[in-house]
Design goal:
By secondary structure, the protein is mainly alpha-helical. Helices cover 74% and strands 0% of the residues. It has nine helices and no strands. Helix 1 packs across helix 2, helix 5 packs across helix 9 and helix 7 crosses helix 8. The protein starts with a helix and ends with a helix.
Amino acid sequence: MQTQKEEIRERILFYAKDEFLKKGFKGASMRDIASRADVSLSNIYNYFKNKDKIFCAVLEPLLEAFDKMEKEHNREDYLSIEIFEDEDYQRENILYFMNIIKKFRSELKILLFMSFGSSLENFRDTFTDRHTQMSIGYLKSLKAKYPEINIDISLFFMHTISSWWLTILGEIISHDELKDNDIEQFLKDYTIFSTAGWKKIMNVK
């Protein structure tokens, strides 16, 4: 019985994702999702209280991936100026973002472009604010370890840099013509560009 309930729940989420991808949160309806999932409209409410709950459930794996990325950002082994020269670290980051793009391309489109009217419509702002504070904390920890570096950096610069990753992800997923090697090359180029910039602004020798 429990297995059957899980199968129905997964079926609802499968068709809900397609509805949100085609129509956005505002345009999708519980009735259409229930019909496509072959579930009665009254029964779908036994699985999800409302459309927003379905929307959040569809995006939960992606949001968890973002949470994991944020938690790992300030890892102790990353608190080193050596990361500016560490090709393995840079490669790891590139592969991580490649994996997010490949695994959650549809979910990213829904979250970044089709969430208006949902509880996640302000995700860009909340992510940027949270990431800004996290980055400031990282710089302070790095400064404590390397007093010679500069972290007197504009708060608005930090805010803007923090928003770039979502902008970059949005640009990538908006261009379906991009192949994996195109995306990987872009991420390599961006890593080289941003690494040089951070080294200069932080006065890392």
